Amino acid sequence: MKVITVAEMKDIERAAIEEYGIPGIVLMENAGVEVAGQIESILGNLHNKKISVFAGTGNNGGDGYVVARHLHNQGAKVKVFLIGSKTAVVGDALTNLQIITNMGIDILEVINQHDWDKVKIAMTFTDCLVDALLGTGFTGKLREHMVQVVECMNKMNKVIIAVDVPTGVDGDTGQIQSVAVKANYTITFALPKQGLLLYPGALYVGELYVADIGVPRLLVQNIAIQQNLITSGDVTNMLGKRQPDAHKGSCGKVLIVAGSRGLTGAAALSASAAMRSGAGTVNLGIAESLHDIMEMKVTEVMTSPLAEVSPGVLGEESFPELQRLSLHSDVVVIGPGLGRHEETMSLVRRVITTVERPLIIDADALNALIDHTSLLTEAKSVPILTPHPGEMARLVGLTAEEVNQDRIYIARQAAIEWGSIIILKGARTIVAFPDGEVYINSSGNAGMATGGAGDVLTGIIAGFVGQGLSSHEAALASVYIHGLAGDIVARNGMIGMIASDIIKALPAAIFGIQEND
């Protein structure tokens, strides 16, 4: 499914009006009709239902006036609270304001404290609050009078329905600078705005409905829109079913270079996840002093002892053997639990520029790229990087908080500049490609906020690449399957979920996706 920015939605509306000749007031009418219909579906029979519509002076308010008219015609007792003066309303919104004025619908301009007292009384006795204050027109920080109305709405414990975007949520980034309307339902138009899917904004959306307002299909399906939502249908088309005559040699050979003293668990989790995702064989390259430990820890995984520069630390002395092992592999992973020793970082940089197999760079290996991201353009194939916000922050010279403020933009720019596939982990993981295409993951849950979950994702990616998926397909399918496995585990509760639980659920997650075919 395509996901849209605020600017792209404005371009679509402009094209619908100027190129297709659809009057703006028709789009506004369609939007209001759709919202009113959804309200009826949510509340049931509208006769005598008390509904308060909070409208701004812009086009989102215009949508609200249309909503008010149709709810009134269905027998609802509607009050419209205009936050501002009627004199500030212009264009199509003004036309619809005049219509509901002529219909005798109760409209109150909220300007002074006396007006606010009336608002609070009305809220107390209403069944539903409609947020048509700002929509996609909002960015930055709410003004004081808007903060006041939003806080009042949130305190009332009433059903709140937001028109297009809850007031206070940035439609592009999902960021909230002060407060935002905590909607139970949000009805957005044409396509989901990306800020509705990203946290923290996603917490304020409630149930999301995407309404068709009559925008021509070609505009909505425009290939120039480069944001997408990963869904089960997308992944079903990527994961083929195993052939009856398959054998371990035909199902992918994965090489994972991982582990150091105190961090062998990361290596074990990645290797086990690669096996559980369907890889035929997995070879774990590990420092020779840790080899015996790993042989007992991962029974189904092969292990290869590598030369070390000190106990548990890999350096360039291990490179010749790594290169030899890579030639017998379909994909190479480097990084989980590898440690940050200077010698290890040198080894990682050499592997990135030399190994001739698809490469997945994770965890500690990402630290080798600090001030060296230009090396990624020397990789023999497009590498996959899997940073969490902290790791991404170190690579781009920002803080983790700054990365999370605009995850799509930062992931996209990094992917373009580094010629790499970037999987920016976290709630709503972002997958970005060098051509600027970006995907937002729709699976997963808060129970997956547990140590080792990222190592599991890395192993899944490797397993899928080994089985023949392109790096592009593997990145998307792995992120979704990883989250889906977490969702399966969460059926028994999120608290207490551990990374190995996710690994155990992988076969069921993959089977569930394949059965959708």
UniProtKB/TrEMBL annotation:
Record function comment: Bifunctional enzyme that catalyzes the epimerization of the S- and R-forms of NAD(P)HX and the dehydration of the S-form of NAD(P)HX at the expense of ADP, which is converted to AMP. This allows the repair of both epimers of NAD(P)HX, a damaged form of NAD(P)H that is a result of enzymatic or heat-dependent hydration. Catalyzes the epimerization of the S- and R-forms of NAD(P)HX, a damaged form of NAD(P)H that is a result of enzymatic or heat-dependent hydration. This is a prerequisite for the S-specific NAD(P)H-hydrate dehydratase to allow the repair of both epimers of NAD(P)HX.
Catalytic activity entry: (6R)-NADPHX = (6S)-NADPHX; (6S)-NADPHX + ADP = AMP + phosphate + NADPH + H(+); (6S)-NADHX + ADP = AMP + phosphate + NADH + H(+); (6R)-NADHX = (6S)-NADHX
Listed cofactors: Mg(2+); K(+)
UniProt entry keywords in alphabetical sequence: ATP-binding, Isomerase, Lyase, Metal-binding, Multifunctional enzyme, NAD, NADP, Nucleotide-binding, Potassium
Residues in YjeF N-terminal domain copies: 9-221
UniProt-annotated binding residues for K(+): N60, D131, T167
Assembly with partners or alone: Homotetramer.
Positions bound to AMP: K425, G426, A427, R428, T429, G454
Xref: Pfam families: Carb_kinase, YjeF_N
GO BP terms, alphabetized: metabolite repair; nicotinamide nucleotide metabolic process
Cofactor note: Binds 1 potassium ion per subunit.
Family of the protein in this entry: In the C-terminal section; belongs to the NnrD/CARKD family.
YjeF C-terminal domain ranges (all copies): 231-513
Protein name from the UniProt record: Bifunctional NAD(P)H-hydrate repair enzyme
Positions that bind (6S)-NADPHX: 59-63, 135-141, 164, 266, 337, 388, 455
GO molecular function: ADP-dependent NAD(P)H-hydrate dehydratase activity; ATP binding; metal ion binding; NAD(P)HX epimerase activity
Enzyme Commission number(s) of this protein: 4.2.1.136, 5.1.99.6
